[in-house]
Amino acid sequence: MGTRAAAFSAKVQNLQDYYIRLIHQTQPLPSGNDIANTLKSLSASLLGVLKDVPGQPFVFLRKREKEQQRLNCLPSLDYRGFHAALAQLLEVIPLITSGIQSFGQAVLLAVSALVPFLEQDLIDTLPYTVSTCLAFFPTCLQPDIIQCLCCHLFPYTIGAGDYNDPANVQATQSISAVLMMVLQFTTNN
């Protein structure tokens, strides 16, 4: 498992290096295709890990009270680091000069693959984060963004837990903002 963890951490570090090069405009600037290849590789690693996980983490994902059980059955990789690197890259989307469509597709794949590995508080922030991509990604990715929201994020945020539970407040309160962004930025309402 040490080799897998080291390879995963190296790829996350590669994403952080892309971010630094973009933010400081260090030449050669990474293209969206370069970043997309690293994101696809990390997503494939996560899906491979998910195949090896005993039990059913998706069943645990639907119930907030079973979060610790779900996290205990997952191997120890830098999931938080991957989430942070992904969030940083989303901040610098306007600086990516080419390959934005492949970058966008890879981001949506990465977010979908990352969901079972994150703590619930991070999962609750993903719908808002993904919906902000509507403002920056090409319009051809709008159906993919909406599908990611509806099929991969909402079932594990607003569909998980009791609505009266204070832990579920952030997820339910962000839904109106997410819907407003979807309606504002989509061309086909």
UniProtKB/TrEMBL annotation:
<dbReference type="Pfam" id="PF14776">
    <property type="entry name" value="UNC-79"/>
</dbReference>
<protein>
    <submittedName>
        <fullName>Uncharacterized protein</fullName>
    </submittedName>
</protein>
<dbReference type="InterPro" id="IPR024855">
    <property type="entry name" value="UNC79"/>
</dbReference>
